[in-house]
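All the exercises in this workshop are built on plain-text protein records. A record pairs a protein's sequence with a compact description of its fold. Backbone structure tokens are a discrete shorthand for how the chain folds in space. Once this layout is familiar, the rest of the handout is easier to follow. As an example, a complete record with its sequence and its structure tokens follows.
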Amino acid sequence: MKIIFIGGVRIGYTVLKSVYESGYIVDTVFTLPKNSSASDYVNFESLVSKYDTKLIRATDVNKLSCVDIIQDISPDLIIVCGWQQLISKEILSIPKLGAIGFHSSLLPKYRGRAPVNWAIIMGERKTGITMFHLTESADSGDIIAQKAFPIMLNDDCNTIYKKSANKCVCTNYYYEEWSDVNNRCENIFNYIPNIKEKRTLNKYINIIDNLYLKSPDKIEKINSKIENILFDLENGTQVYFVFSVLQNQIKLLTAES
């Protein structure tokens, strides 16, 4: 299967890496010029060269020269992730299996630019990542799959985009386990009335989140510890004691990684 990938920022890099690691061969990658000023820009060169893929730098993939290249390749599939420009109808009509894209929101919510910013501004408690079929209109094609995650107190655009990238590539098993962790963490918040204590808990949860991104195979252990903590709170254990237990478990898990 011939695949063309179009992307220029971190989330696109993460998805492309996952495509390679899944055993697919990517014929050509279109990416941004070196040292682009685009937010969260990443240079794809080292990744692409590792897999002997042709790399083409462009700011406008819809220009005639790029369209001609894509027509000559005659791809089966085009994957677009981390590219701010809408893909033209001419390009979308080329791949035999169509084109798929990713958007950092739970579509149809927050179509268009800055979906993560808007989710935070609107006070959403959760957001996610959507994979969908590309059409001429922005983020309006049929949805293929979605994965949601909570927005925590200490989250900002940067941390949420990292979570979005991770949700694009994590296995179903790890995702289901991590969903359990997220749900239990939300329940733990209900037992903590003090805002200072909520922030402390959120700090620990962010540490666990980062640990999971680094070592997803540890998710079962993490889930088990969070389940025990929620059980203790439900049975009247004091918050300060729960924090002490959680802190010690984080130290143990971090030491193992």
Notes: The first strand starts at residue 3 and ends at 6. The two ends are 37 Å apart (CA to CA). DSSP finds ten helices and seven strands in the chain. Residues 171-175 have pLDDT under 50 and may be disordered.
